[in-house]
Amino acid sequence: MNGRLQRLSSLFRWIAGPLLAVLAGWHWGPWGFVGVLLLFVVGPALAMLPGFLILRFIPPAPGLPVAPMGDLLQAWWREVVVVTRVFSWQQPWAEHQEPDYLPPPEQARGRRGVVLLHGYSCNRGLWNGWMRELRRRGIPFIAVTQEPAFGSIDRYAPVVDRAMRTLQDHTGLPPLIVAHSMGGLSARAWWRSVGHPQDRVHRILTLGTPHHGTLLARLGTTENAKQMRGDGEWLNQLARDEAGRWADHFDCLYGHCDQIVFPAETAVLPGARVLHLRARGHLQLVFEPQAFERALTLLEEPALSRAA
């Protein structure tokens, strides 16, 4: 369903744009055709720009930098590129281009695997680049699509649990979770649903996850968007259930140019290790080499004590 919705949206954009340009050309001549076509080509990029510029006026926590204008403009342009790639190709048309990788048991045993969790309104196609590189390195992985796309985050726990159990049964080791945005909350909700056992997960690397909510969620109307409101009961209950017992399992990668999860400090859990990136937008965090390198490092780290 997630991929089908994105395919319909992609088709509408690429069919409606040229069609309206032809109609404009018929009514207003060549300049009308060119003007409407340009609007469909550059309009989405221009529509993204205010989301970055507003970050100049949202003060971060003490000690964190206000994003310089140059960083915001760099982040905006990088984000335009990756958003176009992800929402025009990877997710609508290449969601299943890269299958999960479970090598033969004799190769997989003792080789820690990775579960990849996407964020809001995305699907597993987001991770195509990661999946190709993990397969090249012989690292087992499962990337899930969390559905229903706009349902409760708690409803994603069973599919996460299946992926975690499959990889652990196949390799003999608890997997690493790498999660973008809402996916980090899915990971936390899953761990709560199974009682926070220390032997079910190795580490959790979150990329731009709204651990403490995001101001943008106040505009959301879907159930999972409302759950990402910082003053909402869902996030507050999640934190109470955890009681700060296992933040040492987390690495939080974030940036001060994130136009979706802000203020910047909302993407960091107290007690977690933190990696801060400059001039990177929200989706760009997935494509950042430092994110993949951190995941490789975490795969090699020793297991934490069960008493942690």
How does this model look, in words?
The protein has 2 domains: 2-93, no CATH class; 105-300, Alpha/Beta hydrolase fold, catalytic domain (Rossmann fold), CATH 3.40.50.1820. It has a 6-stranded parallel beta sheet, sandwiched between helices. Strand 1 (114-117), helix 5 and strand 2 form a beta-alpha-beta unit. Helix 1 crosses helix 2, helix 1 (2-28) packs across helix 3 (69-93) and helix 2 packs across helix 3 (69-93). It is 46% helix and 9% strand. It has helices at residues 2-28, 30-53, 69-93, 105-108, 128-136, 157-171, 182-193, 223-227, 233-242, 289-300, and strands at 114-117, 141-144, 176-180, 204-207, 250-255, 273-277. The protein is of the alpha/beta class. The protein has 10 helices and 6 strands.
Keywords:
single chain, 308 residues, alpha/beta, Rossmann fold, 2 domains, six-stranded parallel β-sheet, 10 helices
Write the layout of secondary structure elements.
Blueprint: H1 2-28, H2 30-53, H3 69-93, H4 105-108, E1 114-117, H5 128-136, E2 141-144, H6 157-171, E3 176-180, H7 182-193, E4 204-207, H8 223-227, H9 233-242, E5 250-255, E6 273-277, H10 289-300
Parallel strand pairs: 1-2, 1-3, 3-4, 4-5, 5-6
Helix pairs in contact: 1-2, 1-3, 2-3, 6-7
> Helices and strands, in N-to-C order?
HHHHEHEHEHEHHEEH
The portion of residues assigned to helices is 40-55%
Annotation, overall tally of beta strands: 6
* Helix/strand structural class: alpha/beta
Count the DSSP helices: 10
* CATH homologous superfamily title of the largest domain: Alpha/Beta hydrolase fold, catalytic domain
Q: Report the sheet with the most strands, covering strand number, pairing sense and barrel closure.
A: 6 strands, parallel
CATH topology of the largest domain: Rossmann fold
Shape: globular
Question: Can you tell me the residue ranges where pLDDT is under 50 for at least 5 consecutive residues?
Answer: none
CATH class of the largest domain: Alpha Beta
Identify the CATH architecture of the largest domain.
Answer: 3-Layer(aba) Sandwich
| Portion in beta strands | 5-15%
| N-to-C CA distance | 39 Å
Provide mean pLDDT, rounded.
90
**Rounded radius of gyration (Å):** 20 Å
The number of domains: 2
What is the topology, as strand order, of the major beta sheet?
Answer: 2-1-3-4-5-6
